[in-house]
Design goal:
The protein is of the alpha+beta class. 20% of the residues lie in helices and 43% in strands. It has one domain. A hairpin with a 5-residue loop joins strand 10 and strand 11. The protein starts with 6 loop residues before the first helix and ends in an 8-residue tail after the last strand.
Length: 308
């Protein structure tokens, strides 16, 4: 026979125990929520914010790569006595290893060089490029070309169609050759396989220094400063800049990381602000991105198609 007179006491004791347990668990959860596990701040590459970040990284690489493809050949050219240009095969080229699969031709009369990847070829760095890059050089002074106009014809990088004209102004002297470049991209457009487009205009500056010291000139460090306006793949207008500059190195490029390895790119969309921190040094390919709410996320960009 059940003793119902004892039930309130049992319920009270049981209720007290449950409350105590819930309080302990709750306190524990509150402590955990203040210090979330590391993996909770890591975004997968297909996350919408990660796609926005990776698009900016890819766009900067493509502009950087086109400039260096042209400068790779520019360092191997000099003006002939007849007024045209001839290949001189100068050593210590910081832009080397950019064009090891394309055909190139020099028109000495018009002062043009054409870099032709045809229907597509993959260099030793694993990057697939297609189409043509044509660069016209004028205003040669002391063995350095001062004005470079770049046009693209059916050009693509890893099946991303690239459009827009580019204009390079060389501020360097004959000793540093092309170590101080100002450039602009007009009507830039990247068309992706999913039908989205990224449209922009930008002003850039490029300088380089020898990174490793010594006489072999094996590694170089490049600093690129950027100011850009455009419309992102979601159709939203943005402003991007990196006043202190993004750093690219030949060491990271050789190791398979085509993206910047240091520096911060700031993004503004209306009154909201975001940033992409590529780090201080190293070739990890992992960036820290801050969204419009100030939340920080780690994003591994080594998975991007422009990396080997």
């Amino acid at each position: 026979m059940t003793n119902f007179s004892r039930m309130p006491k049992l319920l009270n004791k049981t209720t007290l125990l449950v409350v105590l347990l819930c309080t302990i668990v709750s306190c524990g959860n509150n402590d955990d929520s203040s210090t979330p596990p590391d993996d909770s701040s890591t975004l997968p590459i297909n996350d919408p914010f990660a796609i926005e970040v990776s698009t900016e990284a890819i766009a900067e690489f493509i502009d950087d790569d086109i400039e260096k493809l042209v400068l790779f050949h520019l360092l191997n050219l000099a003006q002939s006595n007849e007024g045209g240009i001839i290949e001189t095969h100068l050593p210590d080229d910081p832009f080397r290893s950019r064009n090891d699969c394309a055909n190139h031709s020099v028109n000495e009369t018009t002062g043009e060089i054409i870099i032709d990847f045809a229907s597509g070829c993959e260099g030793t760095n694993g990057i697939l490029r297609a189409g043509k890059i044509t660069a016209s050089f004028t205003e040669e002074e002391n063995g350095v070309f001062k004005d470079i106009q770049i046009t693209l014809d059916q050009y693509a990088v890893e099946n991303i169609a690239v459009e827009g004209s580019r204009h390079l102004i060389n501020n360097a002297n004959s000793e540093t050759k092309y170590g101080d470049i100002n450039s602009s991209v007009n009507s830039g457009r990247l068309s992706f396989g999913d039908g989205t487009v990224y449209i922009y205009n930008s002003e850039r500056s490029l300088s380089y220094t020898e990174a490793g010291g010594g006489q072999d000139f094996e590694d170089f460090s490049f600093l690129t400063k950027i100011n850009k306006t455009g419309t992102n793949r979601a159709g939203i207008s943005f402003i991007a800049n990196s006043e202190a500059g993004l750093t690219y190195t030949t060491e990271c490029f050789r190791l398979g990381l085509s993206l910047a390895s240091a520096g911060i790119l700031n993004l503004s969309i209306g009154d909201t602000h975001k940033s992409i921190d590529f780090g201080v040094s190293g070739c990890s390919g992992i960036v820290t991105a801050t969204d419009a709410e100030g939340m920080e996320f780690k994003i591994d960009l080594t998975e991007l198609i422009v990396n080997n």
